[in-house]
Specification:
By secondary structure, the protein is of the alpha/beta class. The chain folds into 2 domains: 166 residues, Lyase, Ornithine Decarboxylase, Chain A, domain 1; 176 residues, Alanine racemase (TIM Barrel, Alpha-Beta Barrel). Helix content is 28%, strand content 26%. It binds ligand LLP.
């Protein structure tokens, strides 16, 4: 009996030929709840959070989970109960945090396009900070806050112009990106923020990209940001906190990103050397807290041998798992029950009517119709990016806690999808 975890998946392992998450046999879960089904491990989420918490031991640090990675209420609840704050990017995310038990003082609001209505709601519930991304946003936020008789706490997202060495679609800290305020304009923007009557400057913020697997871009970005902290404070504007964003990568296919605790030891050494080690720190990790805590179970519907390719058609598709179609991303795919069937090479595809609907290419699998597969590393940017394309209901979700399985989202049916639509008279 081998019970070794799969690489990068601390809570996913085979016992004999059966795949488990924590103490739960996935074949049983798939039979009971149907497929496609997202399965999350609570222990794995808490372990990922623990690495950051260890890195920050003895420091003033707030971990604000970037909930765009996975905004399911039960996931938010796990992090809220563990003392996390939240990084949000919309009014919808704000309502989700409140529904999961989060408090305004634990929420920071990022994003380039906040609406007045979103700003108003965030001010009403007493949000911790707005991460502002442009000078025009500063003007609007100040006006909205004044209408409410409040001062909005703001941090400016600066663009450190550092290459995170990741996929171009998920790089955000370069000059050509829509995000952040250019390094050269930052002091001017801070001066303006300090003048505006509806604002109170509280911090500085940066985020350079996602799925970053090296330390060097973080170390470079930190130097660039600390240079700005110096300049802003020389201009007489005090900064209570420094927010270094998120972006730490995970192991999808053998990548070896630094452990969060080790990364932060290095970053804290630099902060100490430059005299900022005792400042209030904030971070906004998303993927690294949930990515490898989740997988998606799917049933093999048909095997379709072809002249050039063999296809393994499963019941999960690009609407459930959009990352391969969007970024040519790799997710490992493994059988839920290992069998003695002869393996063959397949493109694993879904039922959606698009050639882009593939989940894995050229995968060696020993499978037959009716068996279950697990698409790994599916805890981040899968369910939160899922759509109803082809009027496919979004998948159900369960959260595993030891030997317990909690259904945390029902499968969406067609009636739910049509709710809110109107037929013509
Ligand atoms: N903070 C800000 C301002 C962000 O824009 C993001 C992610 C994060 C934090 C969290 O980054 P993380 O720790 O998760 O890397 N859908 C893409 C990823 C998009 C990331 C967008 N911003 C994917 O599936 O790879």
């Amino acid at each position: 009996m081998s019970a070794a975890s799969l690489p990068g998946q601390p809570q996913v392992h085979y016992r004999g030929n059966e795949l488990f998450v924590e103490d739960v046999r996935l074949a049983d879960v798939a039979r009971e709840h149907g497929t496609p089904l997202f399965v999350y491990s609570k222990a794995s989420m808490l372990a990922a959070l623990g690495a950051y918490q260890r890195g920050f031991a003895g420091r003033k640090a707030k971990i604000c989970y970037a909930m765009k990675a996975n905004s399911s209420l039960a996931v938010l609840q796990v992090f809220a109960r563990a003392g996390c704050g939240f990084d949000i990017v919309s009014g919808g995310e704000l309502e989700r945090v409140l529904a999961a038990g989060g408090k305004g003082e634990d929420i920071i609001f990022s994003g380039v396009g906040k609406t007045r209505a979103e700003m108003r709601r965030a001010l009403e519930i007493g949000i911790r900070c707005f991460n502002v991304e442009s000078e025009s946003e500063l003007e609007v936020l100040s006006a909205v806050a004044q209408e409410l008789g409040k001062r909005a706490p703001v941090s400016l997202r600066v663009n450190p112009d550092v290459d995170p060495k990741t996929h171009p679609y998920i790089s955000t800290g370069l000059k050509g990106n829509k995000f952040g305020i250019a390094h050269k304009d930052a002091v001017r923007a801070y001066r303006r923020a300090a003048e505006l009557p509806g604002l109170k400057v509280v911090g500085i913020d940066c985020h350079i990209g996602s799925q970053i697997t090296f330390m060097s871009p973080y170390l470079d970005a930190m130097d660039r940001v600390l240079d700005l902290v110096e300049s802003v404070e020389k201009a007489g504007i005090a900064l209570e906190h420094i927010d270094f964003g998120g972006g730490l990568g995970i192991n999808y296919s053998g990548e070896q990103p630094p452990d969060a605790g080790v990364l932060w030891q290095q970053l804290l050494t630099k902060l100490d050397a430059r005299g900022y080690g005792q400042r209030q720190l904030m971070i906004e990790p998303g993927r690294s807290l949930v990515g490898n805590a989740g997988l998606c179970l799917a049933e093999v519907l048909y095997l379709k041998p072809g002249e050039q390719k063999n296809f393994c058609i499963i019941d999960a598709a690009m609407n459930d798992l959009p990352r391969p179609a969007m970024y040519e991303a790799f997710h490992a795919i493994v059988p839920v029950t290992r069998t003695t069937v002869a393996p063959a090479t397949f493109d694993v595809v879904g039922p959606v009517c698009e050639s882009g609907d593939w989940i894995g290419r050229d995968r060696k699998l020993a499978v037959e119709p009716g068996e279950y597969l697990a698409v790994l590393s599916a805890g981040a940017y899968c369910m939160s990016m899922a759509s109803n394309y082809n009027t496919r209901g979004r998948a159900a979700e369960v959260l595993v806690d030891g030997s317990q399985v909690h259904l945390v989202r029902e499968r969406e049916d067609a009636q739910v999808q049509m709710r809110g639509e109107r037929l013509l008279p």
